[in-house]
Design a protein that fits this description.
This protein is α/β, with parallel strands linked by helices and about 475 residues long. The chain folds into two domains: about 5-250 and about 450-475, Aldehyde Dehydrogenase, Chain A, domain 1, CATH 3.40.605; about 255-440, Aldehyde Dehydrogenase, Chain A, domain 2 (3-Layer(aba) Sandwich). The chain has helices at about 40-60, 60-75, 80-90, 95-120, 155-165, 185-195, 205-215, 230-240, 265-275, 290-310, 325-345, 375, 395-400, 415-425, 460-465, and strands at about 5, 10-15, 20-25, 30-35, 130-140, 145, 170-175, 200, 220-225, 245-250, 255, 285-290, 345-350, 365, 385-390, 405, 410, 430-435, 450, 450-455, 465-475. The strands form six sheets. A seven-stranded mixed β-sheet has the order 13-14-15-12-11-17-18, with helices on both faces. The chain has a six-stranded mixed β-sheet with strand order 8-7-6-9-10-20, sandwiched between helices. A two-stranded antiparallel sheet has the order 1-2. The longest helix is centred in the N-terminal third of the chain and has 28 residues, at about 95-120. It is globular. Bound molecules: nicotinamide-adenine-dinucleotide.
């Protein structure tokens, strides 16, 4: 592909030095190539966003809402192409690719509604002191850089783009070099809708392009989703300019299963929490804490369920789980299998790469994993589940909280009072009770501790792109 960057309302050729190779993970083969944007092109994209800002922030809330509804509608019109591209480039099973698309559509529709309500949020502030009036204005933060990873490309970009545009910000989006084609759709839709030039810019590239954007002094804010390692570099760049950041980082989340659960139902939740997207989810519930009284019934069922999962090429087979999305991720997961063997972990299922073309691994379960094992403490980002037993509720809470991450958790129990109590005690940003990975656009997304700073989705996702101004007037 030659014209793969969308800058100031035009598709342009990449002038950077990196060639990005786009692969089909089920075959382990490239199917497209594009040249990265140069640092100068990142400058042009930021300059275009800066130029577009004064007009875009003055546009009426209902006009912005209409554009956002247009994005939702146009995503729907490209349904089959977007589902196929996610299956091909991410290796997602069809039903997961469909869920991602529906999530992106719902996100644009939701922030269209919030954009429409914006004028009513500017209101008078009652003051106790006499002689003054005060009013609040919610203003866009300004020009924002959005840097995203490869695991949910349509969704993660929608969670940033929709609220940023709703708030009146102009944006420069940098998709992941692993999945750069999917987000091109957002530029194509901007073209179709006649979104004013410069409101949305897309630059593709690797670390160099990301660093050029995150350290750019023309930004007012940077919103980043990705690894902790890069997140801390992004934060360093932001701190040099005292600029706000939102960081959505990694996780090592717990799923806590109490004795009173139906073991078959619990197995369904556990399997979904580690096998969706082949476990390449920041929110994967990869630490299983199972109470003593149910462990012996649950673990053999879990082993059987993982071994029964149909792993294969989503484009040619009926599958429950596809390949890992990149060769780098496949090598990383394989290195954890080697570590598990060195540590002498008890492997109940999987534990190896599949002997076939493409970047496949088998769904994996290790039992009675020591607390200091690297597999218990580090984010693997693959279908690798580690289990430990517990006896008391207090012990379950302590073990679940004993992590440098704090993104999500799942609690499974028939005793709803207990489940709610445990949910309140968990140090994470989102807890599911008797359900798994259910994310609704009205609820918040984001973590505590090492899982990041700030929240996406819901009204909090919009606030992330707004600045509060007060106007105070003396009546005297
Ligand atoms: P990554 O950090 O390697 O890359 C993320 C993005 O940053 C990519 O676009 C990449 O090109 C860019 N980048 C790389 N180096 C950069 C630099 N020096 N400066 C600026 N940008 C740079 O992450 P990844 O491998 O793409 O994604 C996996 C990670 O993302 C996992 O840790 C996962 O937990 C996390 N994640 C978190 C959430 C969440 O909501 N908390 C959601 C999805 C993924």
């Amino acid at each position: 592909m030659t014209t793969s960057h969308y800058i100031a309302g035009r598709w342009v050729e990449g002038q950077g030095s990196d060639c990005i190779s786009v692969s089909e993970p089920a075959l382990g083969l490239p199917f497209a190539e594009l040249m990265a944007a140069s640092v100068a092109q990142v400058d042009q994209a930021v300059a275009a966003a800066r130029e577009a800002l004064p007009t875009w922030k003055q546009v009426s809330a209902s006009t912005r809402a209409a554009f956002l509804r247009g994005f939702a509608e146009q995503l729907g019109q490209r349904r089959e192409a977007l589902i196929t591209l996610q299956m091909r480039n991410n290796g997602k099973p069809r039903h997961e690719a469909e869920i991602d698309l529906d999530d992106a559509i719902a996100t644009f529709a939701y922030y269209a509604d919030l954009a429409e309500q914006l004028p009513s949020k500017n209101r008078d502030v009652p003051l106790a002191a006499p002689g003054f009036t005060a009013r609040t204005r919610l203003e866009p933060v300004g020009v924002v850089g959005l840097i995203v990873p490869w695991n949910f490309p349509l969704v993660t970009s929608a969670w940033k783009l929709a609220p940023a545009l709703a708030a009146g910000c102009t944006v420069v989006l940098k998709p992941s070099e692993v999945t750069p084609l999917i987000e091109q759709t957002y530029g194509q839709i901007a073209d179709t809708l006649g979104l004013p030039a410069g409101v949305l810019n897309i630059v593709n590239g690797k670390a160099e392009t990301g660093a050029a954007l995150s350290s750019h002094n023309g930004l007012d804010k940077l919103s980043f989703t990705g690894s902790n390692n890069v997140g801390s570099q992004v934060m360093r760049s932001a701190s040099a300019q005292c600029r706000p950041v939102t960081l959505e980082l990694g996780g090592k989340s717990a799923i806590v299963v109490f004795d009173d659960c139906d073991p078959d139902q619990a197995v369904e939740w556990i399997v979904a929490g580690i096998s969706w997207n082949a476990g390449q989810m920041c929110s994967a519930t990869s630490r299983l804490l199972v109470q003593d009284g149910i462990a012996d019934a649950l673990l053999p069922r879990l082993q059987a369920a993982l071994e029964k999962l149909r792993v294969g090429n989503p484009l040619t087979e009926e599958v429950d789980m596809g390949p890992l999305t990149s060769q780098a991720q496949w090598l990383k997961v394989a290195s954890y299998f080697a570590t598990a063997r060195e540590e002498g972990l008890q492997c109940l299922a999987g534990g190896q790469a599949l002997d076939r073309e493409g970047w496949f691994v088998s769904p994996t379960l290790y039992a009675d994993v020591p607390k200091n094992s690297r597999l218990w403490t580090e984010e693997i980002f693959g279908p690798v589940l580690c289990a430990r037993r517990f006896s008391t509720e207090a012990q379950a809470i302590a073990e679940a909280n004993d992590s440098r991450f704090g993104l999500v958790a799942t609690v499974c129990s028939a005793d709803l009072e207990r489940a709610e109590r445990v949910a309140d005690a968990l140090e994470v940003g989102h807890v599911w009770i008797n359900s798994v990975q259910a994310v609704f656009v009205e609820t918040s997304w984001g973590g505590t501790k090492g899982s990041g700073i700030g929240r996406e989705l819901g009204p909090w996702g919009l606030s992330a792109y707004q600045s509060v101004k007060h106007v105070t007037r003396c009546l005297g």
